[in-house]
Amino acid sequence: MIEIKSIQAQVKSRFSHKFDIELWAIATIYFVQGAMGLSHLSVSFFLKDQLKLSPAEVASLIGIAMVPWTIKPLYGMISDAFPIFGYRRRPYLVLSSLLGVMAWACMATIVNSAGLAMVMIAIASMAIACFDAIIDALVVQRARLESEGDAGSLQAFSWAAMSVGGITSAYFSGFLLEHWGAKFVFAITAGLPLLVTLAAFAIADPPINQSESVFETTKQQFKQLVTACTSKQIWLPMLFIFLWQATPSADSAFFFFTTNELKFNPEFLGTVRFFTSLAGLGGIWIFQRFLKDIPMRRIFLWTTLIATGLGMTSLVLISHVNRSWGIDDRWFSLGDSLILTVAGRIAYMPVLILAARLCPEGIEATLFALLMSVMNLASLCSSQLGAGLTYLLGVTDVNFKNLGLLVTIANLSNLLPLPLLGWLPNEKVVQVVAQPSIEATKLEPINPEFVGSIPEVNLISK
């Protein structure tokens, strides 16, 4: 009891406003969002082993299932414009969480075909995207109450809660899959959104006066959004981000290689995921400590070049050269994944900062969500392009002859947008970090193609 009070006192000291039950509810929802990663590894093995899908089919299916994340701003606009019984937040949190419960319960019981799996995974993704958009809006509201000295502390607290959920799920994901199977993991995952349902009732959601023109306000905000997006200073960097993120991915094919060829079991892959989650935090620290005062274009150039070069180390594992060096496949893969995760997170940080910088005052949260949706759309394109390349090169669940070529193409394609670096502003990153947008400190769990030598299916996007 003393320890709990001590922790609460420490957290309270970081906030100028009251540390109340609503803050616990917000933390719970972000924790759930991170913990939903428990199913990622199980989805990969379920599609591969039980539904017998090929690498190209898995990549294509997951790409389609990501579609709900490409319209994330729409969820916030709908909740603002169309209150349910006069409430804008709580009903949508409850409905989206129950939708997630239903989807994962179906995955645990009745799903036995690729088509039905795609539908349920898409519904589960939509549920997470919806309650993520709603809770982001709540954080925006509370953040406005922070004093200048506490600016950003609420976002940092929210991100920390999500990180704890993600790291916890990474620790258990492989162990549970190894010993109890994918369906069991899906059943546990189905219970997690119920915490969001309970937390929703602790959220302050005053009823909207029917005389308030909420729809007109949303309409005006939409017009402002369109005006902002037609500005060259916004759409050129946005287009660069899209092209940078849309290059083909070899993730699904490499997952099949690590499990079918190298015989990596779920428990080991879960261990790798746990340590790479921690390594990602290290990458963020390195960026904030040493790299944030570098001009934007220069850091994009060098982080992309270095991370792309490091991504080519996967060829060592594919060709088994590491064995001639006396390095076991598992040890090499773990070390490679840690290094690539750090490099990838460092390379991805400027993207989030740039997205925050592009948001004009008044529509910060909405435009930031739109930019995140653009990146999710780019990731969808990346997945589909990767699926097409995997199919064209003849990489299957047993034929990995051209996997090295696929990985090479996927990594080198990251260099293609670099001639367009002139589309980006060239201010120092520190100038952007000094005044982040409402969501700038909340890191989204999505990475460029060269992150990690052991990929997985990631249903939680931006």
Walk me through the structure.
The chain has 462 residues and is mainly alpha-helical. It has one domain: Growth Hormone, Chain: A (Up-down Bundle). The chain is 69% helix and 0% strand. It is built from 21 helices and no strands. The longest helix is centred in the N-terminal third of the chain and has 30 residues. The N terminus and C terminus are likely disordered.
Please provide a brief summary of the model.
The protein has helices at 2-12, 21-35, 40-50, 55-65, 72-81, 90-109, 114-143, 153-180, 182-191, 193-200, 214-229, 232-245, 251-261, 266-291, 296-311, 314-319, 321-324, 329-357, 364-392, 403-412, 429-433. The protein has 462 residues and is mostly helical.
Work out the radius of gyration. 22 Å
Low-confidence spans: 1-11, 13-17, 432-462
Estimate the mean pLDDT confidence.
83
What count of domains describes the coordinates? Answer: 1
Number of helices: 21
Beta-strand fraction estimate: under 5%
The CATH homology group name: MFS general substrate transporter like domains
Identify the CATH class. Answer: Mainly Alpha
| Oligomeric state as shown | single chain
Could you give the count of β-strands? 0
Return the CATH topology. Answer: Growth Hormone, Chain: A
What's the order of the H and E elements?
A: HHHHHHHHHHHHHHHHHHHHH
Shape: globular
Would you tell me the structural class of the helices and strands? mainly alpha
Q: Can you name the CATH architecture?
A: Up-down Bundle
Task: Please bin the fraction of helical residues.
Answer: 55-70%
For the largest beta-sheet, the strand count, sense and barrel status come to:
none
First and last CA, distance: 36 Å
